[in-house]
Amino acid sequence: MDDVKSSYRISERPNELIDRSKPIQFTFEGRAYGAFVGDTIASALAANGVRMVARSFKYHRPRGLRAHGHSTDAMVQIGERVSESMWLVQVEDGMVVTSAQTAPMYEDRPLSMVEQLDRDGSIGVRYKTLIHPRSEWNAREQLMREGAGLGELDEASDVDSGYSKRYLHADVAVVGAGPAGMRAALSAADAGATVILFDENRFLGGHLAINGLSATQCPGLIEGVQAHSRVDVRLNALVSGVFEDGWLFVTQGQQLLKVRAGATVFATGAEDQPQIFANNDLPGVMLGSAVARLLHRYGVAPGGSTLIATANEDGWQLAAALHAVGVRVTVADERASGGVLSERAIAAGVMVHWRCVIQAATGNDAVDGYQLKQLDTGTIREGACSCIALCTGWAPRYDLPYLAGCKFSYDDARHEFLPSHAAANCFLAGRVTGVHSFDAELLQAELAGKSAAHAAGIGEAPDANLVARVAAAESAQTPRTSSIYRTEGTGKQFVDFDKDVTVTDVRDAVTESFNSVELLKRYTKISTGPSQGKWSSAATIRLLADLNGETVAQTGKTTSRAPARPIKLRHLAGQMLEPVRYTPVHHWHVAHGAEMMEAGLWMRPRDYGDVSAEISTVRSSVGIIDVSTLGKIKLTGPGVPALLDKLYINSFSKLKVGRVRYGIMCNSEGVIIDDGVTARVAENEWYMSTTSGGAGSVYEWIQWWVQSGWGDGVHVTSVTEGRAAFNVTGPRARDLLSQLTDADLSNSAFPYMRSRDIAISGVDCRVLRIGFTGELSYEVHAPSSQSLHVWEAIMAAGEQYGIKPFGMEAQRVLRLEKGHIIVGHDTDPLTNPLMANQAWAVKLNKDDFLGKRLIWRASERGVKQKLVGFKMVTPDVVPEEGLQIVKQVEPSPSYPIGLRIIGWIASCKFSPTLGEVIGLCWLPTELAEQVGQAFSIRRNGELIDAATHHGAFYDVDGQRLRS
Amino acid sequence: MILIDCPNCGKRNQQEFRYGGEYNPRPAKPMDASDAEWADYVYLRDNKHGTQREWWYHRAGCQAWFLADRSTATNTIHSTTLWTKS
Amino acid sequence: MTQRLSPLHVVQKRANLTHKDQAGWLIAVAENDAAAVTVSDCSQDSNLQIEGTHAADFVRNVFGSVPQRTGAVISKDGIDIGQLAATRYILRGGAGADRDLAERLQIAAGSRHITITNQTDGIGGLHIVGERAAVVMSMLCGLDFAVTAFPIGSMRVSSFAKVRSTIWHTPSGYRIYAGRSYLEYLATVTQEAATLAT
């Protein structure tokens, strides 16, 4: 098809990633383009000769394809997908792609903003210039934000479904599948280790594959790792974090991989380090590795005539490859002479300028020429080209090994940060160590693989001979990176392309005293963009060292932090795993109109539609509530009585078999942590209940004491889930249950605060006669698997009494009418039992119990605040829980409106039983101890009146629950 | 996420565990302790930079409370052991 | 006797699965498909716990041998016995065996301080079967599911989809037991993971 051919697509390359038999179409910024299956968005745009792909973050300058990977300029939006890199996403037929970086418009420069930013757009402009006048800041900020792009989020989109996480385990993880990574993986696997080999590319081979070198240069490596049963090859896998104990964080497709490895080999390679020169951001200025990738993997020569600026043989390798496909190539080499590769290329017809560096790119919206400077004579030489490829040096890709704890230090002779210390169980191989010779790389990798396997407990330690050979090979390395990181042309010289930071900006920042590397980074935003400084950090440090007049080692580097690669928040969320707990009768509640509410992880009925009716049914006849969520703990053994006496502030050791007691637990601070009833169901077996919310923490609390010295003769078992629990409560409760059991339920045979194991409707249940609601109550604990039957049997038998199920809201009113506290609702993490008006439970005559010492102290000193009941005096108002109780004082600076806070509302409800608003509140002790003490509550700026009340509000002497 | 070597279950991910604070044994006779001693037990912690003995609970596993000697500086856990009467 | 119900009983009815009686339990009849991974309900399985300083001797006396390490399992008369700690053992068996077994063990314990707890009613179970079962497990649990690390015939207690669970690797696949209240949630997310894994 003619329409997918363009002048930039060259003839077929060996091992290219595209399928030329499958042409497809896509649009970019509204224009249709052709591509082949296998093209990335970037390679397709390059093939079509699209030069400008984005506008820059701050100055809105035209930007082109520059470097492979994540960068601000390469960010695109694909339909609903945001923040994708055009280098990583493969084109699909019909794909609609827009740049995330072109707002407000792609082609025409919106003059007013750009001009202003160009003039005032120096570093810190937002805080220094644009902030004034303040009144216009919002509008300016809005404009800048739109200009900065970043894409548009469609909140209704489900494009983010299908994400998950997975744990992987291996003896050895190898990061990077270039020649070193592959060799290390095979070396470790051959030693017997299980290996996972990660690479962010979709192909194996790393720099070999990018540079189109034939597989014969690494015989057996690619086939070897693919065929090895112990090597798990994972491509398109971005390692973005490395943490303690060999914990790696990897994204692959829609999955987040959480990897645990015994040892890790970092074969992360090196990144091109571009020199800084004038207009170095023009479309057409590219990194050599990006040109090589397009050429060898996608069959695209992204320029007509190309200037290659180099300082090593890598540039000549690219020159030869471009020349071979018919591109007119000129090389500017800052060296005086080259090696074998340059000789060959020159012989083949490549033009060369020795001892020349690039000083400027020329062109308006894209490169149309270059300026070179002869280093010895200072002569300026100009020429025309449409592409400038930079091959002037490398920086080891050290961010991941650095996260793992490895250290790197600057080598003044080689102008690179090279590894100086490897962290425990971490090994490095290949170009990340500064090694660029192929043989040395493979030798290093063999050692790293063996060492990693050995560190993971597999195979022998590598022999000394190999170690010595590697050391010799490493020391034979020569400089690859130019001593020149910047030239002095006229025009903007960009240091960081993600954030549009220039040399002038850095100089200004240093002038303003932001002259330490960490401060500079934060002030200028260098290395905080999607590329995380991999093309700017090294130059920034060298520039800062020069400006400060110090060495690079003195300047130091910024701290690397995870994630080292951009990852989606959706990856972190993964599959939604939010546990929710249902009681065995959950679906009955839902089917019978219950409004469910969350209570911790549990779903519980709030009400069944009519709270007042639920309350009055309990008071007049009988109701039932599902309290299966209560914590239940079985304690067995001869040591239990002594243990309970220490755990509870009140006494349990003398409790007789078949009896139940309410108890309060405190911590060592004397603060109430939980309450509940405990039954002695046999001589050596006790059945404890805890609050629903305290089930887990109380169990762990008891286990802690049991496992740290108080466990003699005690076993503690959580049995919360084994039994559902239903409180059948109301004056007709006995009549109802009598129909379902042969057991004698009379008050003499089964009195208040007793427990019995009896059959209810044929199911063996444990029944406790207790009374949170203040009525005759049987708490029926039925085996969970048969509990729905028990519940339904109770409902059926209760029909003649008009039984109603009731929810948490009714329960809260019922207990409040009795003045019962709810731990954690009426109390807080400072509340001791004396403050909570539970002095009756404190048995200071016991030898020891948790909290005794500080409760005793409090009893000696008295408490300042107390929990006390109250009734509203102001009619028809239910003050919200948490409202402040205030006292009127003379207005003063401390009390500007003449009100002093003296307490607050803990619980407050309208009681349909009493026809009054009642509650519990915190007041100063001297007020709380007065019956009928009036006080004021501040609500919506107004004062309303209430008065204290002592004891229960309903059935004061507790006759009903004992009847 | 660090690995913690449960004395029963072996090495597991940290997220299976609950941290239980510094090892801080309770004085045997609370009522005989001075106020200063008791305040030290209840409220004060060493907050050491270096290796400290601390409690961990294997919540998602065997539910054992155990003691770990962990460096707060490096996060290295040197040893773990169940509590025994000394 | 009142039939015992799985925590998934209602959702199974909604999915139009048929139920049949099995040893006192009303069990959903699983559909037999040959998917790469299937998730089915095994809440009816018996689950008991034995605790005591002399629990190892007790288990040896009753069953003839005792697992020696945490995570090790021995099998006797259709009961799998796994070690949770030197003083704690977990027993797993088929539907309906639990109440008799608990009573038998209680009698065998006599007056010794051995605590037998029948947790069957409090626990729900999922059976995960198929060639991708280990992948599904590794999506929800941080354990290493390589057969060398977690062999058939062993058990572990760990966090599965953020819920404390006992995981048994049996010849037919993985059996996961967790608190009954979590089962609807666990069944949903496990099924979802199974879909994502295939």
Can you offer a commentary on this structure?
Chain A has 28 helices and 47 strands. In chain A, strands 8, 9, 10, 11, 12, 13 and 26 form a seven-stranded mixed β-sheet that branches. A six-stranded mixed β-sheet of chain A has the order 38-39-40-37-31-41. Chain B has 86 residues and is mainly beta. Chain B has one helix and six strands; from the N terminus they run βββαβββ. In chain B, strands 3-4-5-6 form a four-stranded antiparallel β-sheet, with no helix packed on it. The longest helix of chain B has 9 residues, at 35-43. The model of chain B has no long low-confidence stretch (mean pLDDT 95). With 198 residues, chain C is of the alpha+beta class. Chain C has five helices and 13 strands. In chain C, the strands form three sheets. Chain C has a five-stranded antiparallel β-sheet, covered by helices on one side. A five-stranded antiparallel β-sheet of chain C has the order 6-7-8-5-9, covered by helices on one side. Chain C has a three-stranded mixed β-sheet with strand order 1-3-2. In chain C, strand 6 (73-76) and strand 7 (79-85) form a beta hairpin. The longest helix of chain C has 15 residues, at 183-197. The termini of chain C are far apart. The model of chain C has no long low-confidence stretch (mean pLDDT 95). The chains are: A alpha+beta (963), B mainly beta (86), C alpha+beta (198). Chain A binds chain C through residues 162, 164-169, 194, 258, 260, 575-584, 587, 602, 634, 636-638, 684, 713, 715, 717, 719-723, 761-763, 783-786, 788-789, and chain C through 1-7, 10, 25, 49, 51-52, 113, 115, 117-123, 135, 138-144, 146, 149, 161-163, 179-182, 184-185, 189, 192-193, 196-197.
Strand order of the largest sheet of chain B: 3-4-5-6
Distance between the termini of chain A: 95 Å
Distance between the termini of chain B: 32 Å
User: How much helix is in the residues of chain A?
Assistant: 25-40%
The coarse overall form of chain B would be globular
Low-confidence stretches of chain B: none
Low-confidence stretches of chain A: 1-5
Largest interface: A-C, 44 and 45 residues
How confident is the prediction overall: mean pLDDT of chain A?
93
* Rg over alpha carbons of chain B: 14 Å
The quaternary organization reads as heterotrimer
